[in-house]
Design brief:
Peptidoglycan polymerase that is essential for cell division. Its EC number is 2.4.99.28. The protein has one domain. The protein is 65% helix and 5% strand. The chain has 15 helices and five strands. The strands form two sheets. A three-stranded antiparallel β-sheet has the order 1-2-3. Strands 4-5 form a two-stranded antiparallel ribbon. A hairpin with a 2-residue loop joins strand 2 and strand 3. Helix 3 runs parallel beside helix 15, helix 5 packs parallel to helix 8 and helix 13 runs antiparallel to helix 14. The protein is globular, with a radius of gyration of 22 Å. The two termini are 17 Å apart.
């Protein structure tokens, strides 16, 4: 049994995740080698190294933990409550960073509850809509109830205010809803309801949403050099870094823009540092690795016959894809800046741990799919052998 379990793991996915995370650790060290925070040059590297070790332990645990157990009320309810409590506690003991009340300090570390809320939304919506498959097109019974939790999470994140993360959570949830099997009529009704809810909220919070600083981001991203000393400062220096790298880059550690010119070089703009130092080859490695993870997740979702596993894979893949696009798009001027980290690569403990949990779940779903396929493709003339009811994702469980 152990050999069958080991052979069922998706090693290509595991290797890409490991390589991308280690590459990110190296680039965090390079990007923060000269810091302006009054800390040692290896400060962020040492913290990220610890984050990566913790993430590896979490990843292994979640890769072995049977994903089907997560749709149990005993796990689902505490997870939902913990995510809501974490977001509410921010307004009591939260720490402001990046003009948003997004962090809770725990000793020497900071936790960002909204990062874990993303994953909580994915697991919750996947579990609930999987259970509602038999009546998914009954609007009041099958469609609306799960959206109450989604609305609460988005609202609590938006009032921090962190509209970028709230938007990401909403987009991730939308991909799960669109993939849940509900008909077009209900999808259109949902769109109308969202519009009717969001429009009045936008009017009530217009001073926050359309603040001078946020509007400056919208107007400056198309031409950052028109106000390079102020609103276009971040993007202009990102352009300088990307343009300086060319095809081969200046060499690892040889970047200039990170020397106090490019803000948040080790977090939001780490792709600019990669481009400057490693050129198109470094950027290509990151983009292709992220694309592989997203496409692999979609393929797992298509192969998975369990609605819960399929929706989990879709949600996790969309989270990686959406967040990557927003980070890369912001750093290259395709879309306005939102302050989103690049998955697996940027510095950040909460982001890395959340990604480790998500990837562990995805690997577990993939393993279960491969294990199931091995029992399906039996030799001709051989009596079909159903997959053992007592085995799920690497653990023996009660039937």
């Amino acid at each position: 049994m152990f050999k069958k379990i080991v052979r069922s793991y998706d090693y290509s996915l595991i290797i890409v995740i490991a390589l991308l995370s280690l590459f990110g650790l190296v680039m965090v060290y390079s990007a923060s080698l000269v810091t302006w925070h009054g800390v040692p040059s290896d400060f962020f590297y040492e913290k990220q190294k610890i984050n990566l070790l913790m993430a590896a332990v979490v990843f292994v645990f979640m890769a072995l933990f049977p994903y089907k157990a997560m749709k149990s009320t005993k796990i689902l309810l505490p997870m939902v409550m913990a995510s809501l409590i974490g977001l509410c506690v921010l307004f009591v003991v939260g720490k402001v960073a990046g003009n948003a009340l997004s962090w809770i300090e725990v000793g020497a570390r900071s936790i960002q509850p909204s990062e874990f809320a993303k994953l909580s939304v994915i697991i919750y919506l996947s579990a609930v809509y999987a259970k509602k498959q038999s009546y998914i097109n009954e609007f009041n019974k099958g469609v609306v109830p799960p959206l109450v939790y989604l609305s609460l999470v988005c609202l609590l994140v938006a009032v921090q205010p962190d509209f970028g993360t709230a938007g990401i959570i909403f987009l991730i949830a939308s991909t799960i809803i669109l993939s849940s099997g509900m008909n077009l009529k209900n999808i259109i009704r949902l769109i109308l309801i969202v519009f009717c809810v969001v429009a009045p909220m936008a009017v009530l919070m217009q001073n926050e949403i359309f603040s001078e600083k946020r509007m400056a981001r919208l107007t400056s991203y198309s031409d950052p050099f028109s106000d390079e000393a102020d609103t276009g400062y971040q993007l202009a220096n990102s352009y300088y870094a990307i343009g300086s790298g060319g095809i081969t880059g200046l060499g690892l550690g040889q970047g200039v823009q990170k020397l106090g010119y490019l803000p948040e070089a080790h977090t939001d703009f780490i792709i600019a540092v990669i481009s400057e130092e490693l050129g198109i080859f470094g950027v290509g490695f990151v983009v292709l690795s992220l694309a592989f993870i997203v496409l692999r997740g979609i393929l797992i979702a298509l192969k998975c016959k369990d609605p819960f596993g399929s929706l989990l894979a879709i949600g996790i893949s969309s989270m990686i894809g959406i967040q990557s696009f927003i980070n890369l798009g912001g750093a290259t001027g395709i879309i306005p800046l939102t302050g989103v980290t690049l998955p697996f690569v940027s510095y950040g403990g909460s982001s890395l741990l959340q990604m480790a949990v998500a990837m562990g779940i995805l690997v577990n779903v993939s393993m279960f799919v491969k294990f199931e396929e091995k029992y399906k493709h039996q030799k001709e003339g051989e009596e079909p052998k159903p997959a053992p009811a007592t085995w799920q994702g690497g653990f023996r469980v009660k039937s």
